[in-house]
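Many introductory courses stop at the sequence. We go one step further.
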Amino acid sequence: MFTLAILSHQQKVDVANFSLNAEQMGLPKELPIHIAQSCLVGGKQAGSRIITLTVGETTVRIVPTRAMAILDAVRNGVRFGWQSPVKEIVHPSFINQEASGGSGWLDGFNEMVVRCGYQWAGHPGQDGDEFLTLHGRIQNTPADEVVLEIEQTPPYRVTLRGRVDEKRFKSTNFEIETCLSLSIDEPYLTIEDTLINKGSYEREYQAIYHNNFAQPILEKGAQLHVPATEISPFNNYAAQGLEHWNQMPAPTKDFDEMVFNVRPISDENHLSCALLHNANATSGIEVTYQTDTLPVLTIWKNTDTEEQGYVVGIEPGTSFAYNRRYQRELGLVPTIQAGETKHFMVRFGLLTDEHQVIASKARIDALQARQTCQVNTTPLVFLDA
């Protein structure tokens, strides 16, 4: 096993800029494995770091400064991610999450994979005596203890680990161990995260994996396939688009966003998946997730203009995107005991040919065949002003 400590305060290891090929990592020099890290300068991205990891046909850009977020991935020339109006990799020090009524989180939002949580996730607003900002604090927390591991034998699995702390005196004492892995011959990118309650008391927690995709997958005629027992609109505005919730239009001015709540069907291993493919079904993104800890799915359909951010989110979570105060009655605010761990798995299939897309859709159809989907026209929650 080749191991590289990229960032470790305990060991006083901090390599800001580097580039290593397979041979430099003790691997056969012909292997298509490469890693580099850059520390950015200028503007609001000053001090942010990007790790670029190439394994076989896949190149992934990870942002350890922003909780090990995945900026984007490219496989066989197809980019998975989106084009946000936010172009910089904004350093958390420039984010004021309390701004704009608790929506300041959006000032740095541009990644393919964004972790929301873990004390809370969802829309901003008051919950009892506590004001909750949009989607929690974790995404604007830099990672520590970033380590690369590479197996020395086939399939030469490459794993990037990091630890992100969410701690406050007299409050939460969470540690999140993140793990991203991929291998040379597979079109899959897997995230496995472990939430650990290091405190002495039981705590509520929430997690949403805000996974975002646009061109070339998202386009007029693109389709989303989700095996579901129940689908409902997030609010009355989304109810207007319920009939075509899984059909994607071209960029549409004044579309704003429509959000849909999905209760998924999973297999005997507690796995469910969703597929978004382009109009001619020659490429797509498959999102597979573990439903025993991520039991619900949010679909964020933001097919506004390209300048505003043309994007669709496929978001497995412990909860929907409502403010936490609405979700206790839905049974969607779980707790974690002192010393307990919770495990989350999300796998991305970077599908770049029609055979992979057809196979993914067939798996979803087989799951849907187990149960009829109930479409509810009424939102689960009545949102107050």
